[in-house]
Write a structure and sequence with these properties.
The chain is mainly alpha-helical. It is about 55% helix and about 5% strand.
């Protein structure tokens, strides 16, 4: 069961044949969609006929406006289209710079994980997978879905889904252990003032009382997150980053 789910026609998110049977219906209509689960679906559903009971709540259509000065003023508070273009160019440049920083950070964390030595209890990986699944289930519930329905859409069993998360869980655990070691070796600490400032930020962001935020976000958990951030910053600030251009492919000369 999924409620108030937004389906973009042409996205291919659902089982083949689903979208085609939605097209042509009007708002408020209730109708059936008859489909057959693909052969590569989960064994208990593969090649089986299914009926989805649908109610169409809303229809949205994308309409693109004219690109003129009026659009620039409404869209981005820019006086002219030229000013809007410059603003967009600046945003793209900043976005690319942020992407580069994230890529550098990702590679640094990968190197840290590779250098972790010692036997890590399997239960730590299992706990990391459990945390990831809880987070995904929470995000799905905000969209009117649940994990069981999501797995049916993807054609995966829970066991397969957990297995697909194993590599990232191993990476996350190793990175966390490495950052904890960096923080310990470099005597990094999180002050009470920094904790309170972070709670103030959350309170402003979610428009909640700070004490209510503290009930949802435990102090030790937040302290650990901030300490990890400090360790990441330390690693980034002290890393020797080199860049190299990818070699251009040589043009093949056609022999006549």
């Amino acid at each position: 069961k999924g409620e108030n789910y937004e389906l973009t026609i042409g996205s291919g998110q659902f089982i083949p044949g689903f979208e085609e049977q939605v097209v042509g219906h009007n708002i408020g209509e209730e109708f059936d969609v008859n489909v057959k689960f693909p052969t590569e679906y989960t064994p208990e559903l593969a090649d089986k006929d299914a009926v989805f009971k649908i109610k169409l709540h809303e229809i949205k259509v994308k309409e693109l406006p004219e690109i003129d000065d009026e659009f620039a003023q409404d869209a981005a508070d820019c006086d002219t289209v030229d000013a809007l273009k410059k603003s967009i160019e600046k945003e793209i440049k900043e976005h690319k710079e942020e992407e580069n920083e994230r890529e550098i950070e990702s590679q640094l964390l990968q190197k840290l994980a590779e250098n972790v030595q010692g036997e890590i209890p399997e239960v730590m990986y299992d706990n990391e997978v459990n945390d990831q699944i809880r987070n995904i289930d929470y995000r799905l519930s905000a969209q009117g879905l649940n994990l069981e329905t999501y797995l049916q859409y993807t054609g995966m069993t829970m066991e397969q889904y957990r297995e697909s998360m194993k590599d990232s869980a191993i990476q996350n655990v190793k990175v966390r252990l490495a950052l904890q070691k960096v923080a310990a070796l470099e005597n990094l600490e999180v002050t009470d003032e920094e904790l309170e400032a972070e709670y103030d930020k959350f309170a402003a962001q979610y428009q909640m009382e700070k004490e209510e935020i503290k009930k949802v976000v435990p102090v030790e958990g937040l302290r650990g997150d901030l300490l990890n951030e400090k360790a990441i910053k330390f690693v980034r600030d002290n890393a020797k980053v080199t860049t190299a251009r990818k070699p251009r492919a040589k043009k093949e000369e056609a022999a006549e």
